[in-house]
Amino acid sequence: MTTTALPAARAASRAAALPWYVAAALVAATSAKVGVIWDISWHRSIGRDTFWTPAHMAIYLGGVLAGLACGSLVLKTTFAGTPEDRGASVRFWGFRGPLGVWMSIWGAFAMITSAPFDNWWHNAYGLDVKVLSPPHVLLALGIWAIQLGALFLVLSLQNRSTTEEPPRLYGLLAAYMIAILLQNVATIGIEQVGFANLAHNAVYYKVAAGGVPFLLVAAGRGIRLRWPTTTAAACYMAFSLVLIWILQLAPATPKLAPVFNPVTHLIPPPFPLLLVIPAVAIDLVMRRMGRNRDWRLSVLLGVAFLATFFVTQWFFTEFLLGPHARNYFFGVDKWDYSSRLGPWRYRFWRADTNPVTPTALAIAAMLAVASARIGLWWGNWMARLRR
């Protein structure tokens, strides 16, 4: 009995082992995302003083690491790969590698190309008026590609597992990568859903309904965990909180005039959206409905997301604007060095010009349903990915 148990345990251990190239892709995706959030904090606290900031180096480290690791895997698979390696790969220009590897390689090239483009853009035009300048768009596409590549690599391991229940590690890492993608949505939508002051206007809920359910529902359908959506939302919030707690400890001095708010430490990112509660609702609805009824399920998921998200954010953001949230844990009431501080900090913005009405909520519900339906489609594809 002991003799037969040992080989089984060794086989399970080998199955749960994380290949080195997957670990490198995960580190690269994390480094790039940390660098982006750090860079936004740097611009808000210090201004742009040089291209060679630590935040920029963290971003491009992700691109270089992903490119080198995935490029070497393509060469190994093409010229010295086993039949199993070739069977789990995709052919491109005569070379072979997993789909996630090709995504990461393209992302690395895009990120490296964006570096001199961004430097030239700032020298020519100065500071970015908007977050999404042309070089930033190219950089964002590259980062998304690297992160999607890491997600695809983990999913292929999960789906190729020969055991009845794939190693829990693969599911956790896939949920973590969905959390990173949720961070991207929050970064892109920072001017609409980033700050608690925006939570009493209609655009806030429309933007969130259009972008968030897609990823949460895809996680629920494609990741093999007991609570996949909740796990992804929890990882998203944990990632955000760790950066909030770390960044506000770093000293910072503004270096670009005009300085109306003389900050002394890096400004942390806004407090994250409370996605855990909507995620629990999505998990429960998906368990109840099961599969093969995706159109009906998408309606229930979209409505469940919007209802729980609306109630949660409406009241929680009132707390975030109050005096009890102005502490290290929540990291709120931290504003750019160029901000003229005033009572606007504790008010809801655009609530009078873009109010939340039944019509606005109906539009948000339709966006959430459409987003959930696309999420189900993509989650089905994620569950079948093996290469």
Q: Quick one: overall form?
A: globular
Q: What's the alpha carbon Rg, rounded to whole Å?
A: 22 Å
Largest sheet: 2 strands, antiparallel
**SSE pattern:** HHHHEEHHHHHHHHH
CATH structural architecture of the largest domain: Up-down Bundle
Distance between the termini: 36 Å
Strand content: under 5%
Q: According to CATH, what is the topology of the largest domain? A: particulate methane monooxygenase, chain B
Detail the poorly predicted runs: 1-15
Q: For the largest sheet, list the strands in their spatial order.
A: 1-2
Question: How many runs of DSSP E, i.e. beta strands?
Answer: 2
Helix content range: 55-70%
What number of domains? 2
- Structural class, please? mainly alpha
Mean pLDDT: 87
- What's the CATH C level of the largest domain? Mainly Alpha
Number of helices: 13
Structural account:
The protein has helices at 2-16, 20-45, 54-80, 83-87, 99-125, 134-160, 168-188, 190-193, 202-222, 228-247, 276-289, 294-320, 358-384, and strands at 90-92, 95-97. Residues 1-15 have low confidence and may be disordered. The chain starts with a helix and ends with a helix. It folds into 2 domains: 19-160; 169-387, particulate methane monooxygenase, chain B, CATH 1.20.1450. Strands 1-2 form a two-stranded antiparallel ribbon. The protein is 67% helix and 2% strand. It is built from 13 helices and 2 strands; from the N terminus they run ααααββααααααααα. With 387 residues, the chain is mainly α. Strand 1 and strand 2 form a beta hairpin.
